[in-house]
Amino acid sequence: TTVTAAKFIARKQWFVVGHHDGFIRVYTYESPVKQVKRFKAHAWSWTITTLDVHPTEPYLLSVGSQDQIKLWDWNKDWECIRTFDPHGVAYQIKFNPKDTHKFAVASLMDAQVWNIRSSRHEFTLSGHGSIVDCFDFFTRGNQLYMITGSWDKTAKIWDCQRRTCVQTLEGHTDCITCVCSHPDLPILLTGSNDETVRLWNATTFKLEGVLDFELGKVTAIVCLKGSKRVAIGHDAGLVITEIRHGKPAPSNR
């Protein structure tokens, strides 16, 4: 069936795959590839929309379309040890890098923060005018921030401690589909259905450049730690480019 989400679990040398039929499959990535586990994670016909792996504990988070968020423990033969009921459809989930007992969810018109120890919803970041479909964490000094992207064509910067919006990033002319904080450079990237990627300074939140490769809508952005290279997925192709921080970013628009 159609693969809808995938993650590496490096410390186990596995990769885990979510499918359109609600199943999760776990494979070794050493050759030859072998299936380790296959199990029904979400109700029949509910597409698994997103996955995330806990950085230290044996946990996997999964989300089914219009279904609960579930926490799985692979040391307990992939037992579901907790469930969470987001307030609306969950588009993306990610563990908090500074407090890994918490995770965030992009859902409808907000971002929610939950605690895996209690299944408790802790707080909500609200302010977008339409669906919030993507987010990422980043730090300035020792302070944790979040960037969210929305169908309202804006990205917002949130102070996670104060739980407030500190900046709105404007300029895209269509829905924002993906956001990414570069792991090494003070750069935030936003991708959009307007076919561009915008680069923002993660300290000043000023626009540093625009990338347009004329390959259609932007669907994904991935940054590699230890490298200035960025992979950008479009409707009509994949681009690998290098960010030149401190210089104007290339643009053909």
UniProtKB/TrEMBL annotation:
GO terms for biological process: endoplasmic reticulum to Golgi vesicle-mediated transport; intra-Golgi vesicle-mediated transport; intracellular protein transport; retrograde vesicle-mediated transport, Golgi to endoplasmic reticulum. Keywords: Cytoplasmic vesicle, Repeat, WD repeat. It comes from Oryza glaberrima. WD repeats lie at residues 125-168, 169-204. InterPro entries: Coatomer_complex_subunit (IPR050844), WD40/YVTN_repeat-like_dom_sf (IPR015943), WD40_PAC1 (IPR020472), WD40_repeat_CS (IPR019775), WD40_repeat_dom_sf (IPR036322), WD40_rpt (IPR001680). Gene3D superfamilies: YVTN repeat-like/Quinoprotein amine dehydrogenase. The keyword Repeat applies. The keyword Repeat applies. It comes from the Eukaryota. It is found in: Cytoplasmic vesicle membrane. SUPFAM superfamilies: WD40 repeat-like. PANTHER family: COATOMER (PTHR19876), COATOMER WD ASSOCIATED REGION DOMAIN-CONTAINING PROTEIN (PTHR19876:SF72). This is Uncharacterized protein. GO terms for cellular component: COPI vesicle coat. Pfam families: WD40. The lineage of its organism: Eukaryota, Viridiplantae, Streptophyta, Embryophyta, Tracheophyta.
